[in-house]
Amino acid sequence: MKTTIATLKRGQRALIKEITSDIIPLKLLEMGCLPGNEVELLQTAPFQCPMYLNINGSHLAIRKEIAAQIEVQII
Amino acid sequence: MAKQIKVSLIGNPNTGKTSVFNLLTGLNQQVGNYPGITVEKKKGVCKLSRGVKAHIMDLPGTYSLNASSLDENVVIELLLNKKDKDYPDVAVVVSDVENLKRNLLLFTQIKDLDIPTILVINMADRMRRKGISLDIPLLEKELNTKIALVSARKGEGIDELKKLIESYTSLSKKPCFDALSFAPDYFGRLQKAFPDQSLYKLWLIITQDVNFRKVDKQEIVVSPDFKIKPESELKRLQQKETIKRYQFINNVLKKGLIVDEKAATGIRAKMDRILTHKFWGYFIFLAILLLIFQAIYDWSSYPMDLIDEAFAWLSEVTKALLPSGPFVDLITEGIIPGLGGIVIFIPQIAFLFLFISILEESGYMSRVVFLMDRVMRRFGLSGKSVVPLVSGTACAIPAVMATRNIENWKERLITILVVPFTTCSARLPVYLIIIALVIPDEKVGWIFGYQSLTLMLLYFLGFGTAVGSAWLLNKILKIKSKSYFVIEMPGYKVPLFKNVIINVIEKTKAFVFGAGKIILAISIILWVLASFGPNENFSNAEEIITELHPNLSQEELDNKIASYKLEYSFIGYAGKAIEPIVAPLGYDWKIGIGIISSFAAREVFVGTLATIYSVGSDEEETIKNRMAAEVNQATGGPLFNLASGISLLLFYAFAMQCMSTLAIVKRETNSWKWPMIQLVFMSIFAYSVALIVYQILK
């Protein structure tokens, strides 16, 4: 199984790998979700969705299916 | 003549841009709409020094010039169109010191547009608490701009900003770096094909799907010298551009911004732990909702009673002071009650927007969206639908507008379609008067009265129907749209009193002058229709009645004449015409008139009944007593009994009786198809439910 943001546990930090999927909106990239940036899972709502993240200092929430498209490497 | 400078205020959401705007302009602002769309257009005037005035335009919050919503389209349409009358002499980009990195992305894009640009770094008061220090001269040099360090909360730094605006001609118009250098080949060809245009502007025209009035996208599409790439490749290039911009920003901030993590203190994590908690988060949200409802019903009832009495008194005094005649009747029976019908809603609307703006300003609303997204998605809605559904309890119009930040078109459309089911404040007067008539004023147990329980049930019914039809629409509608949902979770802030108050005033004004106009116009039309008749039955009412009932007292005679007149007035004929349609629901022709006239706006129903029952009457008897005394000609029993009352309540709960909402839905969905579907579906549904309920209960 690939490691993605969706597989992170609360409080875990990771580095974003290459972003390849076309369904990732440009807006998310513009908010700091770029390769090499650090991401931390702060909180999830019930059923793990949406996920509340700290990406590169930006605090934002995204849905699980988008999170599952962003590959990361746990640090 | 005074020197005029046009300023555009641009910035990410949650940077305190509106606070800066409020500080610069005070109450000296106007809110309008952009032509054709319902994006709020805020303008204000700021006096800089003797003879120099700045006209400040507060553009909608945007994360970048790559627009993904109507609000964001507005920003780039203005900034790319030099011929627009609002095209700025100087752009002021507002950023938040805590999110400088992300905020600078938009700044670097604005810098590429050949507009003199000032960077405001707001929330400077938080720097020490967050352990942040800035090297301003270095940042100014690297970013090729002037920086104003502002604390909108404390009102600091505004004078410096005003000075910078005044001397805008000395600002640089040049970009701070070349963001398009990653694909020299492609962009080289583009520039070569259109040598006299700015490269970044061309690039925006190619990638953005907005309506550029003066700049012609077609020109680039058909150009033989240059081929536009397919969309997926354009997206790759946009990604590369974004990465390039962040590389530049990271390099600048590495030198110019120091964050001492040890000095940073934050309450965000602690607050989030409670407010987004799997149990306590929902519990607190529910408690806040209850508080809001309490305020809307209970607290606002005091000023509402006062307003009601004041208008009744005004009507009487006017009547006593002025000589009698048709014109004075129009004032005392048409215009004053009509105005009263508008003003009476002000306390409720003000309370609702007070709470909504406090929740938004404090950053809490984003947590609600976060908590509710999963639940709402089951019904085809989004977490962001919660705000419109809550706003819908005041009025569907701002609620439909509030759907604009839902990115997914299907979720947005469904939200728009179901919002009119929530119990808006216009239904409230209808509910209140009918409940008072048909539901006994008794208590169950110690606290709850049947009447307030009925009202609460009606609210639940509204929400339930909204959510239920959303679920249904989600199954029926075959719209493919990418499900994407990104929401910023801003830091918690104590709401700024000034911002909240200005927002409440603006929203209330919009209601009074927007919806108010319709209500007033309809009240006047109704009065005219009820005060004149097409034939001699109306004009000779006095003789006819006196002849028929020679033995009655003067008072009884007057009442008979008044109701006879009404029956043979224009409105009486209209009511009679639709009586066969509404009779199976338990209504007579007078209620029929109420329903016809409230087709434009629900709150007109009570106003109509007030007009109908007060035309020609001098006594102070309340409308409620008159309604209670009405007899159903068909059954001989009281017209307003449990069966017809419940039927009427349900009719109003479901019927789409609001022209303004239909108009706004047309604007927001850009087609007549959706408002028409809404109108037909809701009307049939309301009629059927009312019919079934009346026939069962009767």
Overall description:
The complex is a heterodimer of chains A (75) and B (698). Chain A is mainly β and 75 residues long. Chain A contains 2 helices and 5 strands. A 5-stranded antiparallel β-sheet of chain A has the order 4-3-2-1-5. Chain A is globular and about 25 Å long. The two termini of chain A are 17 Å apart. Among the domains of chain B are: 1-265, 3-Layer(aba) Sandwich (Rossmann fold); 506-697, no CATH class. A 7-stranded mixed β-sheet of chain B has the order 2-3-4-1-5-6-8, sandwiched between helices. In chain B, helix 11 (280-299) runs antiparallel to helix 14. In chain B, strand 10 and strand 11 (448-449) form a beta hairpin. Chain B starts with a strand and ends with a helix. Chain B contains 31 helices and 12 strands. With 698 residues, chain B is α/β, with parallel strands linked by helices. Strand 4 (58-62) of chain A pairs antiparallel with strand 12 (486-488) of chain B, so a sheet runs across the interface.
CATH topology of one domain in chain B: Rossmann fold
For the termini of chain A, the CA-CA separation is 17 Å
- Per CATH, the architecture of one domain in chain B is 3-Layer(aba) Sandwich
Taking pLDDT < 50 over at least 5 consecutive residues as the criterion, the unreliable ranges of chain B are none
> What are the segments of chain A in which pLDDT stays under 50 over at least 5 consecutive residues?
none
In CATH, the homologous superfamily of chain A goes by the name Ferrous iron transport protein A (FeoA)
Q: Which strand order do you get reading across the main beta sheet of chain A?
A: 4-3-2-1-5
What is the name of the CATH class of chain A?
Answer: Mainly Beta
> So how many helices of chain B?
31
- Mean model confidence by pLDDT of chain B: 84
The name of the CATH topology of chain A is SH3 type barrels
For the residues shown, what is the average pLDDT of chain A? 88
What structural category characterises the helix and strand content of chain A?
mainly beta
What is the β-strand count of chain B? 12
Following the backbone from N to C, one meets helices and strands of chain A in this order, namely EHEEEHE
Lateral arrangement of strands in the main beta sheet of chain B: 2-3-4-1-5-6-8
- CATH class term of one domain in chain B: Alpha Beta
- Estimate the helix proportion of chain B, in percent: 55-70%
The general outline of chain A is globular
- Number of beta-strand segments of chain A: 5
Oligomer: heterodimer
Function (chain B): Probable transporter of a GTP-driven Fe(2+) uptake system.
Subcellular location (chain B): Cell inner membrane; Cell membrane
InterPro entries (chain B): Fe2_transport_prot-B, Fe2_transport_prot_B_C, FeoB_GTPase, G_FEOB_dom, Gate_dom, GTP-bd, P-loop_NTPase
Pfam families (chain B): FeoB_C, FeoB_N, Gate
